[in-house]
């Protein structure tokens, strides 16, 4: 039996105290899913929860103190070990996610650089790569502070093909949003149109949706700055990003960025349906999209890491 550090985010502590009855589409299934999860390793235990549950999603996104962590020590008898390199990469990604000098796009771009550099170290000498990776993490933060990360980000090419492909794929999603049935129906129809509209119309639609994002969503997310940041922190913490992926790190990066792109498009579509973005609708979109994603399991194991990186980063450009 060894000792492990036990991490408890504040939102889970509050959730456990309140034990709310949840009526969401995740909890109210015949299997009666429970949203709380615990991840065990020999020297670390993480309490976490599935954002597919609406009441968890609400707490993760809208509690500014959701990720204040309580750390204690517990006995652990699991043999599984989170490798030093995986732990370090996860910590470096979290450092980027919480740094105030970056917006969401820059954070994801910074993570792209981190993942890209880490591929060179995969399977290499662990001690040396630890040191190098930590330096690279510091460099990314320095670049953000000096403005050069922003400059590099602005030089990324806009590749419409990848964005149209992503938008078209999103059109095939069937979402069970926790919203009133009429709004849910309008949203489903709008989504469906994406799957069938002509290439030229889809291209116009992309421009329109970006405009909705700029006019309607940006003021909402600027007024609630913790929402996107907490979504990102939850992903990194819950999935131990990009650790579990091993040499497929480019793929999990693409998945993370695709999810952000899709959530942006869904918020914009919501507004294109004549609705306004507010707490309840954002929670319904994020939790409903996350449920769909798990159910559809859209992983594709492709080996061309560079292409995946390019595809991912190009989804950040507007
Ligand atoms: Zn629930």
Structural descriptors:
single chain; 318 residues; alpha+beta; 13 helices; 4 strands; 8% strand; globular; binds zinc ion
Outline of the structure:
With 318 residues, this protein is of the alpha+beta class.
How would you describe what is shown here?
- It is a single chain.
- Helix 11 crosses helix 12.
- This protein has 13 helices and 4 strands.
- The termini are far apart.
- 62% of the residues lie in helices and 8% in strands.
- The protein has 3 domains: 2-76, no CATH class; 85-153; 157-314, no CATH class.
- The model has no long low-confidence stretch (mean pLDDT 91).
- Strands 2-3-1-4 form a 4-stranded mixed beta sheet.
- The protein has helices at residues 10-18, 54-62, 84-98, 104-121, 126-146, 148-154, 160-170, 181-196, 199-223, 226-239, 249-272, 279-296, 305-314; strands at residues 2-9, 36-40, 44-49, 69-76.
- The chain is globular, with a radius of gyration of 20 Å.
- The chain is an alpha+beta fold.
- Bound molecules: zinc ion (ZN).
- Residues 22, 24, 26-27, 35, 53-55 line the site of zinc ion (ZN).
Poorly predicted regions are none
Q: Give the distinct bound molecules.
A: zinc ion
> DSSP helix count?
13
Sheet with the most strands?
A: 4 strands, mixed
- Strands, count: 4
- How would you describe the shape? globular
Rounded radius of gyration (Å): 20 Å
Topology:
Layout: E1 2-9, H1 10-18, E2 36-40, E3 44-49, H2 54-62, E4 69-76, H3 84-98, H4 104-121, H5 126-146, H6 148-154, H7 160-170, H8 181-196, H9 199-223, H10 226-239, H11 249-272, H12 279-296, H13 305-314
Parallel strand pairs: 1-3
Antiparallel strand pairs: 1-4, 2-3
Helix pairs in contact: 2-12, 3-4, 3-5, 3-10, 4-5, 4-11, 4-13, 7-8, 7-9, 9-11, 11-12, 11-13
The chain binds zinc ion (ZN).
